[in-house]
């Protein structure tokens, strides 16, 4: 698997000269760099190792003014080559670069003690001991220290052997299915157009692919690819890669933006990060302090929100929230570096634990518990907690990939296992969106409580329609989640359906004695009235009831199908409408069509009843109007 090495060390300790001696490549390409004799921008080279592998190299500037460039380069490396000049020893940027590498999660490397031709043997012994003492409590404590001279060639072969051993033994962990290339350089090539370079931190990319520029979401296409000066069709993770982009000008891009596939990253303006505040920071860091925030190749200003304390003391480790003025695109587990606003120096760094953070209340027990699980929990715990935090909205598969940094195949298996234990549910197969089992249980309880109260308030009603339940209780739910919840409850017997109505399993219509008497009276009046019943006011007057008293009884009789509502205030008995329908169908089968006079002759009804009943038959799809006549609707 390809491996990237990055240099680190103080200005003028010979990093670029050493890389040139090892590879023959001069990483200082700018006129200003050559004129001033210092590295300003990132430089890139490669070293062909004895076993045939090719080691990618990022050369970083050592000047304190260009530390932000150093962070941009170091973000994509696998191990470090710390360069310390024998004539000067450990210097300020030696310390800061080692701190930065540690904060970025770099765990191994090699130390090159350069300019050995400029010191005597006694001094060499002293500086070697000093360097080893400095490295004692760092990630380079066990690293080999190789004395070299780029001018005489002393130690270069030994250094190459150490680099080869490290590259051979190193096994970087990289996602294979999430293409991400943070941009560290933008330029134009004659005959090709706009080109960007960066370290391909995960996944792979092919010529011809449609990709996006994040966080702005600008679409583009891969016109061509190069790696270490060679044209390729596919570039895998771990390579320094140049991408020729279609349809974008140099001014359209900038360092810090990220190339990735559409729908794979989700920019946000709030990040939750577990940070370590360096013991060397010197002073406390206050809540809401503005800092320089470095992620991959991007640097932005951010405000730090301390969630469990008012200040960070040197050496503290704590969950924090960073809020940005513009969106940032990251993935769980990404490393970040924090530098103070003034004076400008590295003070902290850590791990991104939630790239889709939400503003939380400080000192909230629940909020701090959530962040604790995200920082230190197993993958299954993180998935469960993220879904719990997402609430009824749930999370799609692509977002869960970003929030866990898991390979898609591994995540599929985990979600399947958790689904079998009902810890989560796939409620939308089209968008592959999941909801927490805990959230679904809460929603189920909410439906049951709503129905319980509904039955208490409306005991005469058989239940509530889906539409009414959706608007009165589930208005804030996604329609697919509402449908999934109701179907699941019906299947499990938590609720039952009465025709088109939903109710609790043990619900029975309950009427008071006066309502029972009124119901009998209404049925008697309408059955007696046939196809020409009295109007509703006359009916109610004859029974001594008000509309308010009768309304729920009318509703119940309509739900049961014992009364048929043809239009507002006009009801007929079920038997009368059934007889009419049979007569009309028989007539149409025999004669083919029916006019208004035919209908009047068939029923003897006046216009007052005839027109509403004809329109009712049309609405019920028994008949269809053709000109002035009706014909039987073909079924």
Oligomer: single chain
Report mean pLDDT, rounded to a whole number. Answer: 89
Instruction: Identify the CATH class of the largest domain.
Output: Alpha Beta
- Percent strand: 25-35%
The CATH topology name of the largest domain reads Rossmann fold
Q: Main sheet, how many strands, which sense, barrel?
A: 8 strands, antiparallel
Q: So how many helices?
A: 19
Q: Gap between N and C termini, in Å?
A: 67 Å
Rg = 38 Å
Strand tally, please? 34
- Helix share bin: 25-40%
Alpha-beta content class: alpha+beta
Number of domains: 5
In the predicted model, the low-confidence regions spanning at least 5 consecutive residues are none
How does the overall form come out from the CA principal axes?
elongated
- The name of the CATH superfamily of the largest domain reads P-loop containing nucleotide triphosphate hydrolases
Q: Please name the CATH architecture of the largest domain.
A: 3-Layer(aba) Sandwich
């Amino acid at each position: 698997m390809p491996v990237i090495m990055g240099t680190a060390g103080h200005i003028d300790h010979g990093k670029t000269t050493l890389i040139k001696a090892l590879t023959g490549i001069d990483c200082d390409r700018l006129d200003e760099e050559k004129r001033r004799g210092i590295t300003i921008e990132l430089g890139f080279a490669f070293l062909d190792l004895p076993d045939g592998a090719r080691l990618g190299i990022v050369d970083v500037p050592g000047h304190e003014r260009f530390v932000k460039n150093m962070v941009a380069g170091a973000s994509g490396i696998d191990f470090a080559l710390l360069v310390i000049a024998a004539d000067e020893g450990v210097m300020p940027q030696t310390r800061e670069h080692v701190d930065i590498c540690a904060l970025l999660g770099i765990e191994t490397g090699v130390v090159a003690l350069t300019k050995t031709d400029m010191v005597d043997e006694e001094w060499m012994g002293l500086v070697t001991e000093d360097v080893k003492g400095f490295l004692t409590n760092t990630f380079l404590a066990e690293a080999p220290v190789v004395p070299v001279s780029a001018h005489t060639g002393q130690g270069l072969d030994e250094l190459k052997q150490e680099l080869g051993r490290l590259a051979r033994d190193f096994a970087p962990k990289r996602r294979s299915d999430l293409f991400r290339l943070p941009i560290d350089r933008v330029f134009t090539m004659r005959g090709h157009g706009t080109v960007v370079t960066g370290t391909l931190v995960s996944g792979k990319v092919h010529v011809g692919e449609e990709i996006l520029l994040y966080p702005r979401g600008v679409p583009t296409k891969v016109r061509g690819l190069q790696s270490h000066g060679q044209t390729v069709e596919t570039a895998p993770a771990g390579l320094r890669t140049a991408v020729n982009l279609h349809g974008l000008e140099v001014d359209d891009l900038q360092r810090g933006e990220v190339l990735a596939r559409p729908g794979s990253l989700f920019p946000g303006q709030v990040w939750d990060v577990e940070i370590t505040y360096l013991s060397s920071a010197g002073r406390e860091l206050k809540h809401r302090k503005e800092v320089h925030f470095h992620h991959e190749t991007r640097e932005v200003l951010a405000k730090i929100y301390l969630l469990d304390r008012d200040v960070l003391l040197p050496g503290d480790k704590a969950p924090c929230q960073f809020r940005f003025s513009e969106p940032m695109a990251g993935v769980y587990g990404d490393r970040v570096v924090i530098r103070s606003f003034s004076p400008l120096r590295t003070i902290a760094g850590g791990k991104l634990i939630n790239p889709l953070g939400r503003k939380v209340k400080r000192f909230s027990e629940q909020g701090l518990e959530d962040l604790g699980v995200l920082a230190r929990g197993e993958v299954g715990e993180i998935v469960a907690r993220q879904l719990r935090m997402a609430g009824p909205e749930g999370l799609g598969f692509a977002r869960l990939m970003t929030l866990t940094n898991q390979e898609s195949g591994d995540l599929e298996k985990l979600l399947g296992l958790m689904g079998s234990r009902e810890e989560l549910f796939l409620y939308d197969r089209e968008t592959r969106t999941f909801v927490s089992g805990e959230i679904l249980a809460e929603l189920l309880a909410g439906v049951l409580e709503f129905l319980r109260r509904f039955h208490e308030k409306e005991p005469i009603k058989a239940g509530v329609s889906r539409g009414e339940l959706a608007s009165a209780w589930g208005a804030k739910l996604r329609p697919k989640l509402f449908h999934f919840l109701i179907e699941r409850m019906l299947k499990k017997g938590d609720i039952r359906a009465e025709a088109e109505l939903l109710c609790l399993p043990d619900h029975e219509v309950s009427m008071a004695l006066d309502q029972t008497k009124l119901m009998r009276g209404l049925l008697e009046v309408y059955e007696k009235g046939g196809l020409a019943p009295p109007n509703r006011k006359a009916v109610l007057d004859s029974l001594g009831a008000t509309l308010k008293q009768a309304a729920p009884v009318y509703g119940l009789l309509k739900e049961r199908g014992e009364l048929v509502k043809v239009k507002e205030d006009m009801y007929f008995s079920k038997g009368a409408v059934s007889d009419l329908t049979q007569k009309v169908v028989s007539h149409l089968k025999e004669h083919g069509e029916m006019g208004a006079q035919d209908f009047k002759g068939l029923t003897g009804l006046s216009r007052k009843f005839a027109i509403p009943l004809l329109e009712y038959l049309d609405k019920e799809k028994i008949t269809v109007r053709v000109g002035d006549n009706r014909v039987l609707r073909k079924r």
